[in-house]
Amino acid sequence: MAPLKIAVAKGRIADTARELLTEGGIGFPDVLPDERKLIITSSSGTHQLLLVKPADVPTYVEQGAADLGIAGKDTILEECKDVYEVLDLGIGGCRMVVAGFPDSTPDAVQTLKVATKYPNIAGSYFVQEGIRAEISKLHGSIELAPLAGLADVIVDIVETGATLRENGLVVLREIAQVSARVIVNKASFATRTDDVRQCLQLLEKGVGKQHEATDGLAAD
Ligand code: PRP
């Protein structure tokens, strides 16, 4: 049987996925600090982690190059791929918002200039709200756009709110709650149902344990 392939973003999400699966009895060999391997196979050979860029996780899963993937809700909404979203891991929580200067009036301008890393999410949101928007896709430092006169508002994720505060911006509207979700390839779900379900249970159980540990610390 081929290993079950799980596409994960390099870094924190990949580390978390390894920890959760290891807690469930699927161990992985230690990764050396300077290792550049992009496929990590479990010691038993039953599972593989494919290390990809966050925005590419849904593509790997939709195309069947990975059976499962872990991606932020922001990426899932932006990429609009044909996959099942099956589990909210409840980690990496933040919000997708419209933000701008405190006196911004998104409804009152004829064409709202919007800067964002998420043009699909922003486009759908403003269509739904009946606001005409001209969207500029940026790749980072989104909060700079209103300050530099490139945009009236931004659509971006907010975690602590520090970046907005330090740049004199505020949340004007909330679009969605964001957290890490597990997505599954549709064919894999049909043909490898037991393997997929077992993997989901391990991830779910592992997250539950991590939450319990955190709650315990908070109660101490
Ligand atoms: C993200 C996001 C915001 C910031 C929000 O940017 O685009 O700029 O984090 O976090 P905060 O609410 O805790 O301040 P990221 O750090 O990914 O950098 P980027 O500007 O290069 O996209």
Defining traits:
220 residues; alpha/beta; D-Maltodextrin-Binding Protein, domain 2; 2 domains; six-stranded mixed sheet; five-stranded mixed sheet; 8 helices; 11 strands; 35% helix; elongated; binds 1-O-pyrophosphono-5-O-phosphono-alpha-D-ribofuranose
In short:
This protein is α/β, with parallel strands linked by helices and 220 residues long. The protein has helices at 12-23, 57-63, 73-79, 119-128, 144-147, 162-166, 186-191, 193-219, and strands at residues 4-9, 39-41, 47-52, 68-72, 84-88, 94-100, 112-116, 133-137, 153-158, 170-178, 180-184. The strands form two sheets. It has a six-stranded mixed sheet, with helices on both faces. It has a five-stranded mixed sheet with strand order 8-7-9-6-10.
Would you kindly provide a written description of the structure presented here, covering whatever features stand out?
The chain is α/β, with parallel strands linked by helices and about 220 residues long. The protein folds into two domains: about 5-90 and about 180-220, D-Maltodextrin-Binding Protein, domain 2 (3-Layer(aba) Sandwich), CATH 3.40.190.10; about 95-175, Periplasmic binding protein-like II (D-Maltodextrin-Binding Protein, domain 2), CATH 3.40.190. Helix content is about 35%, strand content about 30%. It has helices at about 10-25, 55-65, 75-80, 120-130, 145, 160-165, 185-190, 195-220; strands at about 5-10, 40, 45-50, 70, 85-90, 95-100, 110-115, 135, 155-160, 170-180, 180-185. The strands form two sheets. Strands 2-3-1-4-11-5 form a six-stranded mixed sheet, with helices on both faces. The protein has a five-stranded mixed sheet with strand order 8-7-9-6-10. 1-O-pyrophosphono-5-O-phosphono-alpha-D-ribofuranose binds next to strand 9 and helix 6.
